[in-house]
Amino acid sequence: DRGVYLLISLLQALNGFVLVVTSEGLIFYSSHTIQDYLGFHQTDVMHQSIFELIHTEDQPEFRRNLHWALDPPRTPEGEPSPAVGKSLDSSAVIYKPDQLPTENSSFLERSFVCRFRCLLDNSSGFLALNLQGRLKFLHGQNKRSEDGSVLPPQLALFAISTPLQPPSILQIRTKNMIFRTKHKLDFTPLACDAKGKIVLGYTEAELRMRGTGYQFVHAADMLYCAENHVRMMKTGESGLTVFRLLTKDNHWKWVQANARLVYKNGKPEYIVVTQRPLVDEEGGEHLRKRSMHLPFTFATGEALLYQSAHPLPGFPDLFQSKGKPSKSKKPSCSHVGRSEKNGIDPRSLLGAVMQQDKAVY
């Protein structure tokens, strides 16, 4: 147990993550810290093709470094590149140990740069990583050839992947607070990991009792989140979404999130959201960029459609501002009932806003 704890501490202190890639291009192992740099969970990438994560222009360079002589076999014209797809067994060249350099040979050392897909990088979607390590024999695979004989261990790339650009102090402070939440298809919260409970302050029971997850979203971000929610239901992934979540102590916390559908038997079953906390300055910058692309102002919690300052006829007061605002941090049953009496579905965006406490704004 002490050794495992020490290993986890070393990985957290390391500015990067550990990667083991087979000669076929399959990810044999990745440390859990890959999530801090690329946004992908460890289980999302294990046993997947490394080329699914690498920029198209950098795939030949990565393939070259997987080969012991830096000279991978060329694909005949007219055939698809082995870099495409997840099953690369057909492109693998099997070597006997006596055909390869010894493991301590400097000839097997590797140091090169590739761009990886990054869910946390909102500028280009890719992060340049320096991979430094060496080719070593990967034992214990027990693979067999077509005639049934056991294949000898093959070389695999063991490397530490570090960002080409050193992280800022801000990134170092926030990289270890990435958290994940699980939701129903309508975004109702189901579960939250330990880091999420620290960032937001809620227990899982408190998250589930609110009903719709939009009750935790700032009114000025609801339409923006709903648009990406619809996109995710159509494509399987929301793309980077920056918005404010309500914490238990009634403060707004900016997060950068990416949601994706999880399927079971070919049908979407639930949503998993990976979220990274942002400082207010970062969130404000995203809000300014977002406002430039919308035909209306929605930055203060009020929709001023087409710059109109007049209230829409028949549009109810969102917070029932008559009388004193409720001091309770939990939505009251009277709010829900009132929404239903007015013919407003409490699960709708308007219903979610009406159940929020005016004091949080």
From TrEMBL:
<keyword id="KW-0010">Activator</keyword>
<keyword id="KW-0539">Nucleus</keyword>
<dbReference type="InterPro" id="IPR039091">
    <property type="entry name" value="AHR/AHRR"/>
</dbReference>
<dbReference type="GO" id="GO:0005634">
    <property type="term" value="C:nucleus"/>
</dbReference>
<dbReference type="GO" id="GO:0034751">
    <property type="term" value="C:aryl hydrocarbon receptor complex"/>
</dbReference>
<feature type="domain" description="PAS">
    <location>
        <begin position="7"/>
        <end position="73"/>
    </location>
</feature>
<dbReference type="GO" id="GO:0006805">
    <property type="term" value="P:xenobiotic metabolic process"/>
</dbReference>
<dbReference type="InterPro" id="IPR035965">
    <property type="entry name" value="PAS-like_dom_sf"/>
</dbReference>
<dbReference type="InterPro" id="IPR013767">
    <property type="entry name" value="PAS_fold"/>
</dbReference>
<dbReference type="GO" id="GO:0000976">
    <property type="term" value="F:transcription cis-regulatory region binding"/>
</dbReference>
<dbReference type="InterPro" id="IPR000014">
    <property type="entry name" value="PAS"/>
</dbReference>
<dbReference type="InterPro" id="IPR013655">
    <property type="entry name" value="PAS_fold_3"/>
</dbReference>
<keyword id="KW-0804">Transcription</keyword>
<dbReference type="Pfam" id="PF00989">
    <property type="entry name" value="PAS"/>
</dbReference>
<dbReference type="Pfam" id="PF08447">
    <property type="entry name" value="PAS_3"/>
</dbReference>
<keyword id="KW-0805">Transcription regulation</keyword>
<keyword id="KW-0238">DNA-binding</keyword>
<dbReference type="GO" id="GO:0004879">
    <property type="term" value="F:nuclear receptor activity"/>
</dbReference>
<feature type="region of interest" description="Disordered">
    <location>
        <begin position="317"/>
        <end position="349"/>
    </location>
</feature>
<dbReference type="InterPro" id="IPR001610">
    <property type="entry name" value="PAC"/>
</dbReference>
<protein>
    <submittedName>
        <fullName>AHR protein</fullName>
    </submittedName>
</protein>
